[in-house]
Amino acid sequence: MNAPTLSLPTYWPSAGYTAYDPGPQRERALVLAGGGAAGIAWESGYLLGLRDEGIDVRNADTVIGTSAGSVVGAHLRLGLSDETSLAMITETPSIQGMGRWGAADALRFAVAQAAPEARFGRSVLGRAALHARTMPEDAWIHTVGAQIAGMPWPDQRLLITAVDAVGGSSVVFTADSEVPIERAVAASCTVPGLFPPVDVAGRRYVDGGVRSIANADLAVGHARVLCLAPFPIAAHRKDWPARQLRSLGPQVRTFLAAPHGPARRAMGVNPFDMRRTRASFAAGRNQGRAAAGRVRAIWVD
């Protein structure tokens, strides 16, 4: 499907292009990392669990969404009801089998992540994704964005990350990018080799998680940062969400939420297993309730 003429997104420093400008100092940032269908369910449940205990993170000055986190962040910012979001998570037709992730893909990913020049490594994955046999682009956008299609970007600040498939540059979609929000979310969720790259202004984009699972360093300039990371690891230690949060500085109050034992068991080993979404949501909600006191200390007090 050919995309309409659209503006290009904003690049940030690691890309070697115009630096991303975080703007003035802000108070609170919510960072939502990648994690497949199970990650969407766990994050959504966790945030609802916090609300059960009186902590509503919808007052965040900035929401940063990567891959699965872009879905959760968009739903949060657009004010979709919990029922609508839960239905999207649990009732979307299975996304397994939309592409094939084989041994060659795994090897390519490992080589790309180990590349000494990060942008080159990302471009290796992105270029391979351009030739992968997956579902049609318009069908993919509908799969992840049907509930938000045609809706305007929220007035509250929302950053959605992606990676330029050809050049490997890291990008940020915002309301100023003039990109339909469902297209930005679909681009951020495009796991190379499994789902089709998404066209924006004549360029193709893939998963923001190719750069970093959380991209928590984009929260620079905020005093309080809450990060939800279904899989809090990375190929390089510097890209681990915990390391990125520490890089924000000792003066920043941060909290990293990752699935505990019951949640990990509920999510399983395949993040795209739709059969586990209800259990992942329930486990996330329980964990959010239990963690509310610690989150309140950095978010509210």
What does the secondary structure layout of this molecule look like, with pairings?
Layout: E1 10-11, E2 26-32, H1 36-52, E3 62-65, H2 68-78, H3 82-91, H4 103-114, H5 118-130, H6 137-145, E4 157-164, E5 170-173, H7 181-188, E6 198-200, E7 203-207, E8 222-228, H8 241-246, E9 253-257, H9 261-267, H10 277-299
Helix pairs in contact: 1-2, 1-3, 1-10, 2-7, 4-5, 6-7, 9-10
Please outline what is shown here:
The chain has 301 residues and is α/β, with parallel strands linked by helices. Helices cover 39% and strands 15% of the residues. The longest helix has 23 residues, at 277-299.
Describe the model.
The protein is of the alpha/beta class and 301 residues long. Helix content is 39%, strand content 15%. The chain is built from ten helices and nine strands. The protein has helices spanning 36-52, 68-78, 82-91, 103-114, 118-130, 137-145, 181-188, 241-246, 261-267, 277-299; strands at 10-11, 26-32, 62-65, 157-164, 170-173, 198-200, 203-207, 222-228, 253-257. Strands 1, 2, 3, 4, 5, 6, 7, 8 and 9 form a nine-stranded mixed beta sheet that branches. Mean pLDDT is 86; it is low at 1-8 and 12-19.
Low-confidence stretches: 1-8, 12-19
Spell out the helices and strands N to C.
Answer: EEHEHHHHHEEHEEEHEHH
The rounded distance between the terminal residues' Cα atoms is: 48 Å
Oligomeric state of the chains present here: single chain
| Count of DSSP-assigned helices | 10
What fraction strand? 5-15%
Number of strands: 9
- State the major sheet: 9 strands, mixed
Helix content: 25-40%
Cα-atom Rg, whole angstroms?
17 Å
**Mean model confidence by pLDDT:** 86
* Overall morphology: globular
